[in-house]
Write a structure and sequence with these properties.
Elements: E1 21-24, E2 32-38, E3 41-47, E4 54-56, H1 58-65, E5 72-74, E6 79-83, E7 91-95, E8 98-102, E9 108-110, E10 115-118, E11 120-122, E12 129-131, H2 133-136, E13 139-144, E14 149-154
Parallel strand pairs: 3-12, 4-11
Antiparallel strand pairs: 1-14, 2-3, 4-12, 5-6, 6-10, 7-8, 9-10, 13-14
Protein name: Peptidase A1 domain-containing protein
Family: Belongs to the peptidase A1 family.
Domain Peptidase A1: 1-153
Amino acid sequence: RHDAAGSYVFGGIPGGARDVLYTPVDSSQGFWGFSTSVGGSAVSGIADTGTTLLLLDDAIVGSYYQQVAGAVNDAQQGGWVFDCGAQLPSLSFSVGDGQITIDGSLLNYATQGGQCFGGLQSNGGNGLSIFGDVALKAAYVVFDAGNNQLGWAQK
């Protein structure tokens, strides 16, 4: 839930998790790396509990915010901002044979003056996308080190 604490379950899968979709993990760089697609674009990313935002390539981020009336990439604010009253579209990414959808309500952070800061921002063109808390809160996520895989179940 947005603006709510998350939780961890060690040694098992949370009771609410149904239909867990698994994807292989590339841990060669010390991260939970996985391949996915967003809006038809291939994405290499990591699942990171220490990152707040969802950081994707500029083209994906720009395409998303084209759907949000009045959204601008504001250098002074450090990223995409928009009117807090704006309705944000959902964003989906593939996992295995399925998809996980991040509800638009999880993609905004209130700032001062009626402007909200987007929970989806650019990864700076470095080619590595980071699926932080914004993405993790949309799903139950299973970090399965024993089988070298990452599981996602829609909440």
